[in-house]
Amino acid sequence: MKLVLLGTGRMGREVEAIALERGHTIAARLSGRDNPGGSGLVPEAIGDARMAIDFSVGAAVPANVRRAAALGMSVVVGTTGWEEHRAEVERAVREAGTGLLHAPNFSLGMLLFMRVVEEAARLANRLPEFDLHLAEAHHRHKVDHPGGTARRIAELLVDRLDRKEGWSTELPPGAAHPPERLQVAVTRAGEIPGIHTVGIDGPDDRIELRHEARSRRGFASGAVRAAEWLEGRPGVHTLDDLLDTLLD
Annotated catalytic, 142? Predict the structure, then answer.
């Protein structure tokens, strides 16, 4: 498979290494400087490549995907911070008949973790004496906080817990945290690849579910496998669709 890499930072370099290991070819590498507003996605640059992997920046994703779709390219997006444009981006893909697979985290281990968390929340919903909370930690370079993965986990927990009406990273000054809000704690420090912890706290004991990324390689590997899966599959997909195929 011939791939176009959108974003040439640390994740882009990891994706390239994994793609080459798995026998793929890199048709083009476009940094933000090479591709302002998606303008670098032109036939002369991409040749006959029909798959792109985007680990650029959130502000660049909508234009990247729209331009790729116009060129008949499918896109795997691992970048976060563009969710407010999701509807228009997905519409462009469907109208073009291309494919899009987006996820805030391409680690297959994280997908398994989220399914474990979902089942734990379903069970805890029957035990109101247990309170749940979420903590995430990432490297200091990560712009969004909380990150896309933490937001997805928080939304999942709120959806499964009748006693939670929403989530928040804020603590009200001089007052206790309202029990109907899921507390989300955020840390940005050093070079932490990513740690997500769900705490289930009861009056007499505590359960902790934790996913810790050892490196960025797991994210890159998942993104390349997602591109392999997306080839020939038009429409909008999530990594859950890939995992369902792997676990079938």
Answer: yes
